[in-house]
Amino acid sequence: MHRREWLTCFSMLTAVGFAGCRGYQYGHVIKPGAENLVGSHEAGAEVFDPLVDEAVAKFLARQQVSPEDCKIGPDGFPAKKTICFIGIENKSAEDIGDYKDKLYNQIDSKILESQSFTPISRRMVDAALHETRMRPDALMLPDNMQLFTAVLQRSGAPVDYFLYATLTSGTTKRNSSTQRDYELTLELTNVHTGAYDKLSSEVRKGYHKSAMGKIWNYNPLKR
Question: Residue 175 has what DSSP assignment?
Fold first, then answer.
């Protein structure tokens, strides 16, 4: 009898103990200016934000247009050239999930804020792709490019440049440590002349697994 009571009491104490050790989840608002969280298993804001900032800054610095190269609008004044941001292709080792749309919006917004170009609305780009039934990587063929730009022009959005963004990565492993080099490349094509320009930015990040199997990492280092 006593043994049965003891087992019952032990079982109850064990259940309470496990319940007390159970993990819990919480959240907090990150204040403006505070450092981003550093992802333990894959890239996040700590990688993508500096990649976009550097790549777009290089892009805008290189694409400064001199007055004699400006096209003249119907009113006789210089008009900003239009840029069609086709999209982002992820060729990295990671699935970036919802960050793909966020990266598009970040790049598009920074170009718009610079007032160096007139970006075409993404909704118009998607509608033109749907109407022509083309994949973004097929637009570099001359006939496809002409058809696609004709659809946009018919919608009131003539195109001067195509812009593509590509995310890639390279992985180096050493025992329980891994280094991943993330690269964001922007490719610009002049639809009138075929002239091509390309630039990129890079962030390196390390991942480390402890002997207990837990993973920790350090902040990315820009090269």
Answer: T
Q: Residue 157 in 3-state DSSP?
A: coil
Phi, psi of 221, deg, nearest 5: -115, 125
How many angstroms separate the first and last alpha carbons of the chain?
72
pLDDT on residue 222: 46
Give helix then strand counts, H and E, for the chain: 5, 9
Residue whose C-alpha is closest to residue 67's, from 81, 56, 78, 83: 78
The DSSP secondary structure of 31-55, one letter per residue, reads PTTSPPPPPSSS--HHHHHHHHHHH
pLDDT for res 203: 92
Torsion, Cα 23 24 28 34, to 10 degrees, reads 10
What does the pLDDT read at residue 68?
46
Q: Compute the distance between CA of residue 102 and CA of residue 120 in angstroms, rounded to an integer.
A: 17
User: Tokens at residue 5, please?
Assistant: 């009571």
Of 187, 126, 132, 136, residue with least CA distance to 161: 187
pLDDT of res. 204: 93
Number of Cβ within 10 Å of residue 90's Cβ equals 17
List, in order of start, the domains of the chain with CATH numbers: 37-222 (3.40.50.10610)
Q: Find, among 49, 54, 86, the residue nearest to 165 by Cα.
A: 86
**Bridge-based pairing state of the strands 196-209 and 71-72:** unpaired
Q: Which of 184, 155, 180, 152 is nearest to 168 (CA)?
A: 184
